[in-house]
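Sequence in, structure out. Go.
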Amino acid sequence: MSFSRREFLACGSAALIGLSLKSEKQLAGSFVNESAAAGHLLRDRASFSPPTRTVKIPVVIVGGGISGLSAAWRLQKSDFHDFVLLEMNERAGGNARWGENEITAYPWAAHYVPVPGPQATYVRELFTDLGVLKDGQWEERYLAFAPQERLFLYGRWQEGIEPAIGLTPKDREQFQRLAETFAKYRSTGAFTIPLEIGYSNKFAGLDRISFADWLKSQGFDSRLVNWYMNYACRDDYGALVQDTSAWAGVHYFSSREAEEKGPLTWPEGNGWITKRLLERVGEHVRTGQMVHRVAPSQRGVSVFAGDTEYQAEFVIFSAPTFLAPYIVEGFEPLTNFVYSPWLTANLTLERLPESRGAEPAWDTVFMDSPTLGYVDAMHQSVRSHIDRTVWTFYWALADGAPSQNRALLLEKDWSYWKEAILRDLERVHWDIRQCVSRIDVMRMGHAMVRPTVGAIFSAERAGLKRRDGRILFANSDLSGISIFEEAQFHGVEAAQAALRHLSGTK
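Output:
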């Protein structure tokens, strides 16, 4: 049976309370990393106290996610140290933040990087710096251990997430034809990571229709094919196929090598990369500093955060671009930037649940669940026996309008989401309530940009990527796709643009 998000939650509070009564065990936990209240001050145009001090500095980086940290990394590597990075949260990292307890470190969002191809030169340079890539070889301990993925469908487990059991001849023909179609697009070289490397209007027409309409026009009507396409879009974009540009849908499957080795992962996910970057640039990072105003002028840019006015020559705006109309003076409203709300949770397990005949994998997915499943932080451990672990549970609220789902995130309390998560898990892990001791939940109202129809090739995005002014935009949302490689690319490109401007070269 298939459940939409609305159907999944339609049981209402009374039913969820009933579920909680089935378990005598009281679970610890709370909401963590909450930033909505601070963000809503910007949304509501709240007043802020005037600054009490002034700092003159050539470059200010706004936002401490992977884009901002990558910009700092490039400035530092270029022997330029006269900059500061301002981050509103108490910990830098953005979607690459991490947590840790007495068992293990664990991710709060992004948990892997696919092995980068030869065109992702900045990523390969970074991974060489971090010891992940040595003499052209990937460090084995950072490649996901087997088994990597498993899918629960038809009452049993299979290895891999693409459905492979219970297929009809029609299903098999469509999966094969879809793979051949994506291979043809891959061979054109127009679908690259980073996007800018192979940026071409050759297939721009795909950006003007939805992925759902494209699938239908190509005769892909298999239920399993469409489930898998929806899963891919929910996983990378937080959106359903009908809300995703066909160009972005094709890019998901045609931008990487078909038989790539990997992915690269760590117990704390991409938080491992954040930690390594902070070791290099942390002296420039100021956390708990929410930028509430950016005022450009002919002579430079003033950046206001806390009690300080930073007078800069250039600003690298690595925060999500949707914030610019609320922060940057004179910035016009945006029309092509839509963001997906997400919920993630970290579950501390005192023991593993019954596996139902399958070896635990790094990434576990349930067919027809409105959620995206979970990853196991201890999967990369070299211990011979593991009892306790942490599962990171992912839920992209893709069904329905993002604004309504953001309201839902804030409206429901921790107990509600705790029960919804356990309800999803116990459909497969019947004893999960006896295994879990703690559930911490993180709500992200604007977790990632959505590649909506017409967004990838919009004039609005093209203008922001020019970086010919004093404010250099750098968030991954400039690509319309929120992945590590895009965030890093734009951060590095913005840093290099700042260096060129400062040196007077073009």
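Check: DSSP finds 16 helices and 20 strands in the chain. Confidence is low (pLDDT under 50) at residues 11-23.
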